[in-house]
């Protein structure tokens, strides 16, 4: 007979049902309803009663199926008997071997052909007839086995559950917290009295409620199962991505090393050509020397041979007639100069001392394969400061961990950080990886509002952090008396953002300067300042004219500054004087004031000097962590007379005047800031014309 699929258990066939639910996970024997009945474990696997007793040890029972250990107190009765298996056993017996079922009512081994649903017994023909005649069982529902074979659910195979204490049907349920079990009517009257705090309910009602609750839990578990399935699919795709990426990286390695090999082979050919060139030069020189010497040798031999021949003639008059010529020739050849050493020697070599080791070291240190096992849920992104403030440096510490929570310290590849500002714009920001557990993400937020920082590697998200940036405090106001400005104009200018040194920041509106990098990955251009740690205004001051502008300066000390460490500089300079040094102070056509750590005061002081002479000195704050300063300075340039006055605009006080400002060529306002790890400096232009 063809096996039937069991409704409600996916697509399991009857044989699969028997193997999965009716055989003990420990001994593989079939369950029965006498000694080897099924006991249900918390992992929802089951063991026969005998295996439970055999495997239980020291208050723990291991599951042979999933290897989980289940602790218990007392005896193994804490693992409940699973009586639902009785229904399933009858279902499977009818489906697989109905002809082998024996009557359970009589003592004869007669084949059963009926089943009483009320008594949960298989009956032979005779017992079926007797069942129909007896008054007690006459109204029972009896089904033929042939019709039972067509059933696709367990309704017809339900076993009546009897009270173990009173042998009566379990028709009630005690819903008391420490009871929670089916009971009979006698139990309700004897041991589960309502006046003793027991909550007696109809078993059908409780069963329906708990069935509905279980359905919801099944839905929850199925949802979890679908989520796990999705994760399995994701992991499968990730495995494929890992293998694909591995092949791509291997190809990249091959391509790069092929290029390196080509470079080496090219260099080898160049060196061999150099060898050929030197050989040709040396050999050519020697061959030319050899050719000249052979000619000289020939002349010498010919002269000696001629002279020897002359001496053979015994004719004095004839001899004396040519003797002078021969002697002159012999003397000339004897005294003729020639190099007695080769013009070139065999001195060609290949210099590669230390090349092999250096090459190996370079290849080992510069060519690496990295792999990150960072686990997204364990990524920690924490702000270093309590509050993020507009136009002030913000630093986040990023710690990547593996799936067990261990921080990663090895080479993890290129960490990417992307910042989303309140306007929805995104920008990549700089990440400082120094080989420690912590990576630093530092940037300057230009707007107040909600931000989000995303961290990733190869576009694989590793974590995100949402945070708020508070608006910057309103700069300290100016109390300057207009009468002191003598009708000067207030040019509305901004600071050059694209010309600023790469280690400082100018906000997009050009009004605020910060002495630390913005953190955004901007290309370095040749127009940027490379030495002067600042920038300059996009206006020029020319003669004749009077010009006035104000700058609010705020700083906060992060750590004590060391001897003479600079904080900021403000001033005027010719464009040609800039970028010669990290400051403009001391240049012949530059005038400035400098704030720095002052050794004598052991404080942060403002200095204005010219020609080696101190014109003004003021202590701004202590040199201690957390100390701050907020002050607005005014700058009045009379380009006609060459006078530059500096004001403490907050106090309407003139603090210094320089009378030697050369305005024969245009001047620009300059600002700069230093040592961002020790002090945070923010300068804001106040330039609007009040006319």
TrEMBL record:
The residue intervals holding the Filamin repeats read: 391-471
List the PROSITE patterns hit by this protein, alphabetically.
B302_SPRY, FILAMIN_REPEAT, ZF_BBOX, ZF_RING_1, ZF_RING_2
- One Gene Ontology MF term: zinc ion binding
Fetch the InterPro entries from UniProt. B30.2/SPRY (IPR001870), B30.2/SPRY_sf (IPR043136), Bbox_C (IPR003649), ConA-like_dom_sf (IPR013320), Filamin/ABP280_repeat-like (IPR017868), Ig-like_fold (IPR013783), Ig_E-set (IPR014756), TRIM45/56/19-like (IPR047153)
Q: Cross-referenced Pfam families, in alphabetical order?
A: Filamin, zf-B_box, zf-C3HC4
Statement: the UniProt record of this protein carries the keyword Zinc-finger: yes
Source organism's superkingdom?
A: Eukaryota
Coiled coil stretches, renumbered:
254-310
Task: List the residue ranges of the region (Disordered).
Answer: 467-491
Q: Does the keyword Zinc apply?
A: yes
Q: Which residues form the B30.2/SPRY domain?
A: 473-690
**Domain called RING-type: residue spans:** 24-67
Q: Which keywords fit this entry according to its UniProt record?
A: Coiled coil, Metal-binding, Repeat, Zinc, Zinc-finger
Where the record annotates domain B box-type, the positions are 98-145
| Name of this chain's protein | Uncharacterized protein
